[in-house]
What does this fold into?
Amino acid sequence: MTGPGSRVTGALPATTLGGHAARQLLRLGESVGLSAADSESYARTLLEALGPVARRPLELPPPSQSFLSDDHTPVEFSLSCEPGAPPSLRVLLEPGAGEQGLARNGRTGLRALREMAQRWGFTTDPLDELEDLFFPSSPHGPLALWCALELRPGGVPKVKAYLNPAASGPGRAAKTVRKALKRLGHREAFASLPDSDRHLFFALDLGDWAEPRAKVYLAHDDLSATEAGTLCRMDDGPDPAEIEEFFRIAAGHDTGTAEGELEAGAYGGRAAEEGSGSRVVRRPVQTCHAFTDTGAGLPSGFTLYVPVRDYARHDGEALVRATTLLGRYGLDPALVLRASTAVSERRPEDGVGLVAYLGLAHQRGRPPRVTTYLSSEAYEVRPPGPAPVARPAAPLAVAGLSPAPSPAVP
Ligand code: TRP
It folds into this structure.
């Protein structure tokens, strides 16, 4: 199925962006038990959504400086696992990758989503209502629009749209989130959000969802496990101890070390080890707060995302943490190992970043879900070793990883 026999990849060499990503999708589909027909049809959907950049040879630089992944591949996979159900395979992509500028990027993204809506018969009304907030004429970064597809059996995906609260400038992000929630009828929602350092994404479930969510993603700089345990605002949410434990395992702090040492280890990074004195940061832990009922005021879902790639020396370590977490939740650890080999043939020890994030999602009325985010690495593999990202670098600020850019040092 994944070889030359595949109709989708037959025409598109593995040395093109689309050929690379479609092959990964086909192999992942097989690894999670999707039918060959479903995988083929989803691979085709991926290529259509990517548009012309699918044909782009991998020897050329990435089509644009996508913030979607570290090496700017405009595609990322994830595997979400919950007890008692088959794993769910998802793909996140940037339909406007390769467009000149974020304004066009966003328009292309909207067009791609509307095409999907037509094809699968869902409404984009909630998105249309927010268009002026998230698509100004001269948008700021770090993104314009991403979409995620949940590749369930049957060939019709569940769709999610990711928008940029900072589209009108980082200083406007909080206000934009508040307005967007209010417009969707979630009048009290904004006030329920915990403190954070940045509003990173605003997401909408589109299509066939029992309870479509509006989701707010927050970045928390220098967060400790204990603090992470306090961030859920659900009515009947998880025990803080569960969140803390997930944080510690995902970040590699589960060895009973004292909190103070953990923080030095987590954020002191290379500066501490090499005594370079330069300030280094790692990507912040994120939380996501999901709102479903307009009457409630409180979120009905909470997710913690740990950017494990910045807290591990190599993907071997990251995969051990992923499998440990799956085991903790009574899930089969082999799921994530199979998925990682489906995406990448390299040895996990030979790089860091294949496993981008580990996430723990709680949604009211459902068992907790553990999600492993797998990078496509079409362009680059980050070499192993402690490699926190150095501050400041304007591109990082643009990418939303550090606060609003301070005036350039003369
Ligand atoms: N690459 C971005 C980041 O690392 C956005 C992103 C991609 C992301 N996949 C994600 C954020 C999964 C949270 C969870 O922040």
In short: Residues 67-69, 76, 92, 283, 286, 305, 307, 356-357, 373 surround tryptophan (CB under 6 Å). The mean pLDDT is 89.
